[in-house]
From TrEMBL:
<feature type="region of interest" description="Disordered">
    <location>
        <begin position="1"/>
        <end position="23"/>
    </location>
</feature>
<dbReference type="InterPro" id="IPR000515">
    <property type="entry name" value="MetI-like"/>
</dbReference>
<feature type="domain" description="ABC transmembrane type-1">
    <location>
        <begin position="86"/>
        <end position="440"/>
    </location>
</feature>
<protein>
    <submittedName>
        <fullName>ABC transporter permease</fullName>
    </submittedName>
</protein>
<feature type="transmembrane region" description="Helical">
    <location>
        <begin position="122"/>
        <end position="143"/>
    </location>
</feature>
<feature type="transmembrane region" description="Helical">
    <location>
        <begin position="90"/>
        <end position="110"/>
    </location>
</feature>
<dbReference type="InterPro" id="IPR035906">
    <property type="entry name" value="MetI-like_sf"/>
</dbReference>
<keyword id="KW-0812">Transmembrane</keyword>
<keyword id="KW-1003">Cell membrane</keyword>
<feature type="transmembrane region" description="Helical">
    <location>
        <begin position="30"/>
        <end position="51"/>
    </location>
</feature>
<dbReference type="GO" id="GO:0005886">
    <property type="term" value="C:plasma membrane"/>
</dbReference>
<keyword id="KW-0472">Membrane</keyword>
<dbReference type="InterPro" id="IPR050809">
    <property type="entry name" value="UgpAE/MalFG_permease"/>
</dbReference>
<dbReference type="Pfam" id="PF00528">
    <property type="entry name" value="BPD_transp_1"/>
</dbReference>
<keyword id="KW-0813">Transport</keyword>
<feature type="transmembrane region" description="Helical">
    <location>
        <begin position="421"/>
        <end position="441"/>
    </location>
</feature>
<keyword id="KW-1133">Transmembrane helix</keyword>
Amino acid sequence: MTSATAGGTGSGPVSPRSPRRKSVTGTRKAVVVLFLLPAVMLLGALVVYPIGYSLIRSFVSDTGGGFAGIDNYRELFTDDGIRTAFRNNVIWIVLAPTLATALGLIFAVLTERVSWGTAFKLVVFMPMAISMLAAGIIFRLVYDQDPDRGVANAVWVGVHDTFAESSAFPKAHPGRDSPLRAAGGGAFVTKDPVRVGEPVVLPLVGVAPDLMPDGAKAAKAASADPGKVTGTTWQDFTRGKGVGTLGGVDSAELGYPGMRIEAVRDGTVVERTTAAADGTFTLSDKADGALLRLPEANFREAYNGVDWLGPGLVTPAVIVSYIWMWAGFAMVLIAAGLASVPRELMEAARVDGANEWQVFRRITVPLLAPVLAVVLVTLMINVLKIFDLVYIIAPGSSQDDANVLALQLYRSAFSDGRPGVASAISVLLLLLVIPVMLFNIRRLRREARR
């Protein structure tokens, strides 16, 4: 049986010619260009023009009156401030993204195993809602040198004083015509040996009345004891001109509670004691003929914590504040990636005898590698332009030590009046970002081909 076609008879069907497909918009290329033109103009105004202008300006002198050649770029490698900024940027790139990503990974993995994981994630992510300016102000107070204001030093001083108690009399010293003399190393010793049955007086001055220990009581003259060495150590000062007796215990004066007293003979300590609340103390007959020494531990300056914002620690301190802000960002992204990890692989590994560390290292981390790369690259680009935290947290005395390229760009352009050098720094920052962006593009293309 033959079938007929539109042109006559034939042995088989002939497919009709397919019509040309229209574009999705059903418009010509000119209309498409018109629609894209506003976006292209915006991109050119906000991205292309600033990059081009900065590149041109980097070859112009600071006065703008002539061609400077590569002098501005030569300045990048000879100026000490710029070299310090470059070194600090390297420290930032190595430490900040790595630590923030690692901390986010730990939080994401651990919060999967607790019922209150969502609440914990909310608390950790909350700093992301705070601006860099506000975070800088917060950590400027956290790192305050005064333990009564700075949280970091309050904790540090509390831990330190738990193991090494600070002295309550750091400013105390012998007054005029005192029976004590300096013994070296901050200690004081009696000028003459002491004898049993003869009360000893150890007057000191120099402690402000409002800084005396809370347990201090009115000083009391020690009574004589035939078989012991007794004495009093006290604040030999009474407010008011001509009031009180120099070298004598007055009722308006306070004792030195807890003052350490040592009996020393031939360089060896034969006995120790501490003064009572009224300043009195007692030693056995072992102290007979010895010198009494007030050791330097009585007068050690109170521990005031760590200078977090000093030249040596300012960069790590600012990095900690950055991690506080961005660890939550890393945690949320990693937790989203962790939700897509097949649980069958983990269960199979546990059935085969793998412990939790092996499951984490050999299964969880490799499967999360694409997400970890995204977080790491994002944070690396972010820290290259870090400015706010360093500018706000680092005090003026150590801002040079905490300097980074973005801050140096601002200072060169607005404080030092060197726009040519500032433009060269901006070009350097662009060149530093390009390799990271190329790596990210290549990684995205590899994932798209899978």
